[in-house]
Amino acid sequence: MEIDPQKIREALRRILEVERDHIFGAKTGSPTARRRELERELDRVLTDLMRKNNA
Amino acid sequence: MKLERVDLVDIRQFAGKQSIVFSTDPNHKITLVHGPNTSGKTTLLNAVYWCFYGNFLAGFNEPERLKSEQSKGEEYSVEVRFEHRAKHYIARRGARSQPDQADLTVLEQLPNGQLNPHPQPELLVGSILPETLAAFFFFAGEMIMKGLSTGAYQKGATDAIRSVLGLKLAEQAIEDLKDIRKKKQKELQTLSAGTDLARVSTELGEAEHYVETRTEQLLAQRSLITQLEVEKRDVFDKLRGIESSSTLQQRRDKIEAQLTQAKRTLDNAMTARQEIISETGTALFLAESAKQASDFINDAVTKKRIPSPFDKTFVQDILKSQLCVCERPVLPGSSEYRAIASLINSATDETSIRRALAVRGISERVSLVAGEAGKTFNRIVTQLTNAQEQVEGLEQEHARIRDLLQKHEAQNVRELENQLEGVESTLRDLIVNKQKTDDEIESKKLEIARLRTELDRAQAASPQVEEVRTGLELIEALISSLEAELKAVETQGIVRITNALNRVVGNSTRQKYSAEVTREYAIKLFKSENGEGKRPVLVLSSGERRLLDLCFVSALVSVCRDRESEINSILLPGAVAPLMVDAPFGELDPEYQALAVNTMMDLSDQLILMLSKTHRTPEVDKTIRPFIGNEYLLIGYHPGPAMGASSVQIDVAGRVYEQMIYDADENWTEIRAIKGAK
Fold this sequence. Notes:
The complex is a heterodimer of chains A (about 55) and B (about 675). By secondary structure, chain A is mainly alpha-helical. Helix content of chain A is about 80%, strand content about 0%. Chain A has one domain. In chain A, helix 1 packs antiparallel against helix 2. Chain B is α/β, with parallel strands linked by helices and about 675 residues long. The radius of gyration of chain B is 40 Å and the shape is elongated. About 0% of the residues of chain B have low confidence.
């Protein structure tokens, strides 16, 4: 499936925001927690992608 | 960011509550702390670092014993007041037990005087000066990235540059995405278990894992090769520096340069031979047959068989009409009819003429190409032979020099040469292995591309599979996008650090030195003397090493400052922070000490210098004196008698102070203000 470049940029922005939060607040989240949060972000983008694709 | 004040409560030798007020005056940006060895300069530096990050700088001894032995209370703490973008904050870290179990609190001082606790203190401190960058602003000269500019620097320098460029954020994101990709691939395998899809997914996962592992090995091999090359150059430089081996080594330098050039010529000739074979090999192979075909057709033309005097259509028309051009009847079965019909075999039509001429044209072209290619091929073979002979000759000369050095009368030369042989042998093996790894990775990448195409075909139209697959595609796209951006940023960043490094080196060394950061993050120092052009400095004196370390850190700080206002979503931001430096000038030549301190002043809006007597040379004092805002003494109190130890005194601006008091009640250090805030 062709993924809209706009969606890739949006996902990238969100992922880097999560990373930034976790790097700056290093004591607040374990790597596992960080990856779980990243997965949630990716799932959100993916759900949106699938919905648009099926519409 | 500017530091305003630090309050220490029962921190190591600083018993009780003691404070330093830092100068924030832009015209007197230096806060100078004088302290003899073991008086607590390093503790002071680490106390501020601990307050912000809960950690200590590399080389700080026994961090678990941070609490003062003279402490009468339960808690020990460090409080740092600082200003950032017109806001004032109080950061405080206090502990009752171990230092690593202390929490950070940050209060914001509001204009009405109210103190507002920040909900995420680590986040705030990290966003002002990330810990990855802090080590370049708070550093101990004695410990600063030990060996940064020597053979062992590689990892330290690489980490430092990548931190300063802010690459860690994107690198972390790539690592996380790869981890999630693995998880998704497993999910896909479970969904498609028992199908062809499962097999292809497994193979793909394995191939990708293989590439990842081999790439890590490749990086390690590259790093090791760089280290060994530095080691080899070190030995060369030592041999060049020994009078009895200097001439031979210089001869070898020339041979090595010529050998590199000759090997390049040999490689080029081999590539050219390969190319000409693949481009014109067929023509060479067919040249003889083409010539025969061409000769045959030319012979037929000469003998007027091509084109034939009889046109095939003309002969067929006569037979069909049964009437000759002379109007005599040509009846089937008659001798005339048979005679005319026999002409059909030697008659030609337009198509056969065209074909024969086309074959002749092609044959002639093949002969022409083969002729030209043959000449070029012979020329390349000559080049190849010459280059091979040159390489062999140079290698023999190289071996001869090695032999002479291995049998040299001086033992140190023999030892160095044997050491070199070991290094070169390992290096050769490593280079072969690296090439092998490179080839294997490339070949596996081709397999990955094929498996991906196969996977696409094998995908069932199941919506669940489709969703996971799209997720994987999204992750792939994100990884590729991040990697591409990172590479571009990294390339620009290295140029930027090289420029900054050269600016600093130029300012600090009166243009005798220049430096270069390579793509592999190796730092190379060059020296220009007596108009002889620049030559690499391969073995650094301890003074040169310290100078390069200082210049490197200064360059990093300069890039950090420049990047503070830049907005780039894939990078961590830069930072502007005070430089807090402990004993930076120890091994610097006096002529460089003042230049180094000038460089530091140029790079920072606030400079906190902690100097012992040996670091505060007259040159340094003269340079910094006009810019000192606040000045402190660290005075050591010792419970026993002097026992013959000479008094420790310091002269500051014409006044003499005792820095060690004996027969005191306890062992501790006093922080005493002698200029500025008291």
